[in-house]
């Protein structure tokens, strides 16, 4: 038996063929049909068939099809209630793969699938309780408790990006102010840098932004810091303070075996993780001398596919 995991992104739909213990054998993709539920389901169905045909796997050998979705959903009815990036709402996937595939279809949001993928096959392997934090355009999260995804009363738990860390702070898309997401996402790092640059003409970031057509990225802040820029270093340290505050709050609530950090900002590697550990371990509740392990995600974009397959 095998499983299929689908990462339904706003741009691409990726289907992966996985073993029962979460080893990704192969994956194929096609552009996502946004705003067209029937077209979207047809593409997913075709990709599943093509992948099985390519490996000579009978459709009856597929034990489960899992889908990671960007949006709110009801797991029990396998329904996407609202998917902003997909341009559709109230789409039921329960029968989308029939008649060829008669196996159960399960859905969860993409951040939860990534957490489950890292839990089974990535940086979280061997843990029982795991938090995954994704630092991208926003701050995403997934909570694995006693080996199971925790999704809460309405299947929308794990929104750690919307924990307020600065009362009356920067406005957030969710309507609150001072959410972790507004400080600790890549977007937050860029905003912090922009604000600091306005007060400080003496930083190489001005020239870098000009060279880049006026655009500032999180990587440029990291590059400027690596080049010894004092302002970039100060901004980065502030960023670490905010992120460490959020992670410490989470550790004190959940006491996970590890926190896995993924997303674009995590590409800065140990230069991010070392100052984070220093701050978090100094603040968190703990009995043993060592603090909670904070490690980089290892599966990249495959985490969501593997996690979906294992739902
Ligand atoms: Zn928010």
From TrEMBL:
Q: Which domain of life is it from?
A: Bacteria
PANTHER family in alphabetical order: BIFUNCTIONAL UDP-N-ACETYLGLUCOSAMINE 2-EPIMERASE_N-ACETYLMANNOSAMINE KINASE, ROK (REPRESSOR, ORF, KINASE) FAMILY
Q: Belongs to which family?
A: Belongs to the ROK (NagC/XylR) family.
Name-wise, this protein is Glucokinase
Among Gene3D superfamilies, the record links this protein to: 3.30.420.40
Family annotation (InterPro entries): ATPase_NBD (IPR043129), ROK (IPR000600), ROK_cs (IPR049874)
């Amino acid at each position: 038996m095998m499983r299929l995991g689908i990462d339904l992104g706003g741009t691409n739909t990726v289907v992966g063929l996985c073993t029962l213990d979460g080893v990704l054998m192969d994956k194929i993709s096609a552009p996502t049909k946004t705003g067209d539920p029937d077209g979207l389901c047809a593409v997913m169905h075709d990709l599943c068939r093509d992948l099985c045909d390519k490996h000579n796997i009978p459709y009856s050998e597929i034990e489960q099809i899992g889908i990671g979705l960007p949006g709110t959903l009801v797991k029990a009815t396998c329904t996407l209630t609202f998917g902003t990036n997909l341009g559709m709402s109230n789409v039921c996937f329960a029968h989308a793969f029939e008649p060829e595939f008669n196996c159960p279809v399960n859905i969860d949001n993409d951040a939860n699938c990534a957490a489950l993928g890292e839990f089974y096959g990535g940086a979280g392997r061997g843990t029982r309780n795991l938090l995954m934090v994704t630092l991208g355009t926003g701050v995403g999260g997934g909570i694995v408790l006693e080996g199971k995804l925790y999704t809460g009363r309405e299947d929308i738990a794990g929104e750690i990006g919307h924990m307020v860390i600065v009362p009356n702070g920067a406005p957030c898309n969710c309507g609150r102010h001072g959410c972790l997401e507004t400080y600790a996402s890549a977007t937050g790092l860029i905003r912090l840098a922009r604000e600091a640059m306005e007060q400080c003409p003496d930083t190489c970031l001005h020239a870098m932004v000009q060279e880049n057509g006026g655009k500032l990225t999180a990587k440029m802040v990291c590059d400027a810091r690596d080049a010894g820029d004092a302002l970039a270093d100060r901004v980065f340290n502030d960023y670490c303070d905010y992120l460490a505050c959020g992670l410490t709050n989470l550790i004190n609530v959940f006491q996970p075996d590890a926190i896995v950090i993924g997303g674009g900002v995590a590409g800065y590697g140990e230069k991010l993780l070392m100052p984070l550990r220093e701050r978090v371990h100094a603040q968190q509740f703990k009995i043993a001398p060592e603090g909670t392990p904070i490690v980089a995600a290892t599966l990249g974009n495959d985490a969501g596919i593997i996690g979906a397959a294992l739902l």
